[in-house]
Amino acid sequence: MIKKFEKYVLITDMDGTLIDSKGNISEENINAIRYFVEQGGKFTIATGRMVESARRYVKDLPVELPVILYNGTKIFDFIKEETINEYFLEDEIKELIKEIKKNQSSLGIEIYAEENVYIFNSCRFTERFSKKGYEVFYKIPNELWERKWTKILILGEEEEMDVLEEHFEDCYGKTNLIRSGENYLEIIPKGTSKGHAMEHLCKSFNLDISKVIAVGDNMNDLELLLKASYGFCVENGNKKLMNQVKYKTKCNDNHAIAHVIEWLEKNIVKV
Predict the structure, then answer these.
(1) Which domain of life is it from (predicted)?
(2) Domain termination site, one of 188, 205, 230
(3) Could you tell me the CATH number of the domain that includes residue 49?
(4) How many structural domains are present in the chain?
(5) CA torsion, ordered 260, 261, 264, 267, to nearest 10 deg
């Protein structure tokens, strides 16, 4: 007997999409995802988070496929506890952030390397880790500059981020810069994105890209939503993103993923 979601793949962003504004995944979303998987679908996550930050949510979900982390820079299999694919920042970016710190000292700068977070420059947004119990390093060891970096996160007030995003290339040169939130700008390795990682995942695990459903809320999700056959933006999402994708769904506080699965069942699935 063919199950109704056989060969379909659901990929969702976490913050602002799967996770509500209180930091939880609703029972409605969890139950809907379990139903999707029980009916033959495959489920995974595409997030800007690192391994341990994603793990505390992944453990409660039926995630059978590897998870896309760091906005596409890393693909990690939580079942096998192994990295499937990973890219690293170009060495010249390491010098660039010294310039940013020198010229715009009010901005927070975080370095992500070897699953650790190093605070290169503090601001009020870099203090969020202390509230969540994550270990971060405020002392930058000299050897960090010789290690492989996964990404850099620049943090500041929304207006600061707007200006920096608009003029970044003029001031600092061309990089793979993405806006992952009102207060977040990320630099990730060239050629990487959630969409690129999704294509890698489909090719590696023989998944039909024409049956991929993706859900997100911000501009770091754009490529993922455009490359998926059914790309949904939640109604609390970035307006630029909303204007560029075909499908819309409920906000993250109104069980967005459950609504997407319900829509899929009513409009697409033929059994």
Answers:
(1) Bacteria
(2) 188
(3) 3.40.50.1000
(4) 2
(5) -80
Q: Measure the CA–CA gap between 51 and 101, rounded to whole angstroms.
A: 27
Helix or strand run (H / E) with residue 85: strand 82-86
Residues 129 and 204 in one domain: no
Structure tokens at 182: 């009102």
Q: Are residues 75 and 199 in the same domain?
A: yes
- pTM of the shown model: 0.94
Q: Which domain holds residue 172?
A: 92-188
Q: Report how far apart, in Å, the C-alpha atoms of 12 and of each of 106, 168, 261 are.
A: 33, 29, 11
Local structure of residue 187 (DSSP, 8 states): E
How far apart are alpha carbons 159 and 167 in whole angstroms? 13
- Specify whether 75 is located in the same domain as 120: no
Residues 114 and 89: their CA atoms lie apart, in Å, by: 12
Cα separation, 199 vs 109, in Å, equals 30
Tell me the residue ranges of DSSP E strands in 115-196.
Answer: 116-121, 151-155, 176-181, 184-188
